[in-house]
Amino acid sequence: MFSCVTQEGKMSWTVADAVDYKGFPADRSKTGGWVPAALILGIEVCERLSTMGIAVNLVTYLVGTMHLASATSANIVTDFMGTSFLLCLLGGFLADSFLGRYKTIAIFATIQTLGTGMLATVTKLPQLRPRPCHASATNTCEQASRFQMGILYVALYLIALGTGGLKSSVSGFGTDQFDEKDEKEKAHMAYFFNRFVFFISIGTLMAVTVLVYIQDEVGRSWGYGICSVTMSVAILIFLSGTKRYRYKKSSGSPIVHIFQVIVAAIRKRKIDLPYNLSMLYEDTPEVSRIYHTDQFRLLDKAAIATEGDFENGSSPNPWKLCSVTRVEEVKMMARLLPIWATTIIFWTTYAQMITFSVEQATTMERSIGNFQIPAGSLTVFFVVAIMITLAVYDRFTNLQRMAVGLVLSTMGMAAAALAESKRLSVARAVGRDTATLPISVFLLIPQFFLVGAGEAFIYTGQLDFFITKSPKGMKTMSTGLFLTTLSLGFFVSSFLVSVVKKVTATNGKHGWLADNINYGRLDYFYGLLAILSFINLGIYLICAVWYKPKNPKADVKMETFVNGSSADETC
């Protein structure tokens, strides 16, 4: 391997912070670029095809085949999706601390493939589902047994584990194929992010159209089997690029670094900060330093040097003493939290699009001539809205995008409440036990379209915000933080469903979320979500105004304690 860096204006043939599969400095001409990035992008497309192909149509299987109650089915779906995104933190931790992104993707993609294969088997065997029947006001179908549900849960949560580990590393490993220090490759990296969102939307579109149709018209096991085979092929394609990839060396887990600062600050909570902040400890090279800010002053105590902090000669114990830069990295992450918290509610409204909205569609007229639209395929309008919106989203800043997304989701829930009110009036008029109500399923388009457009704004806004506003060494951590908003949004949905069902279903009443939605008041539930979303929007706007990145002033000088001595630096 050779390098030709030396003269100014000449480009190096090696990438400074990357290695090839043998551990040598990565040759720019033989590694990285669009071909390896495309191989990585392919595995994400197949992951989205599998996950969304399962999620958007799972509620119909739980209600129609497993004979579970409407609210119970919705919670199973949202818990499954919530766990998938929550496990991104586990995948990110393993990638940063032990496995690296390449191995993490390969291992967890294999786990997801096994899960989808198991799900195909579970839905094929008649012993693993209750006997078919037709439910009515006077006839209650036999629900799936604990054993049958247990086997189903094993398959679903294998998929969740695979999805979580996979998603935590795909976008990061894709950007690893481009060198940020090279202007041309840096431009390609930005383009990669745009294509990343576009292609996962393509995967979702295929899932909610072709895959859902196969599940409904050919068989569930065929649909899930296709997911398993597709992922298997994607893994082989991914592995074929092993020699072409660039690999970045991990600097350790950001989660551990955050806890080190917190623990060190707690240990020194009773120590007063020095009057001269130049006495705070700093050992980071000047080009990589983050200068001191006045927010979250309690954390500054982690940078107070005391006797006993240097246990191994000149190196401090990181659980007792942290540099100013390390403390400021934690502060930067802390400043993201208000925005993080106020975007969770969007994903709670999103959860309704793959649960109750799909169940609404099953009760409505879905025929176009001789063709009947699968209920789960209504989400095609959701995906179309996303793809249309991607053409204009870059005209907004990341905070503006998130605000627009929250506005659209609030409008979407209001539209959903009005549509459900109309559907229920038809159900009362023709009989609540009518299998297909004489009302077009296209009445649901506004709610799908508004929330779908909202997702395009908020997803890209969150991704850009959490990556660009986080410390360089915590990009994977910040991506995981972003994905936990999806996770918590689904869990909040499950919580709200459980609370609303318990509170409203009293004294023998069906409540808002009845087992048969024709007997409930789902419109009230949607109205509640619209109100909560509106309140959350107001809180978000306050947090967005509060969030003002504080850039260090170049003309202010301070002395910083470096390994026990002072050095000049710009603050």
From TrEMBL:
PROSITE patterns: PTR2_1. The keyword Translocase does not apply. It holds the Pfam family PTR2. The chain crosses the membrane at residues 49-68, 80-99, 105-122, 196-215, 221-239, 336-353, 373-393, 439-459, 480-500, 524-547. The keyword Transmembrane applies. It is found in: Membrane. Keywords: Membrane, Transmembrane, Transmembrane helix. It is a multi-pass membrane protein. InterPro entries: MFS_trans_sf, POT_fam, PTR2_symporter_CS. Its main location: membrane. Belongs to the major facilitator superfamily. Proton-dependent oligopeptide transporter (POT/PTR) (TC 2.A.17) family. This is Protein NRT1/ PTR FAMILY 6.2-like. It comes from Xanthoceras sorbifolium.
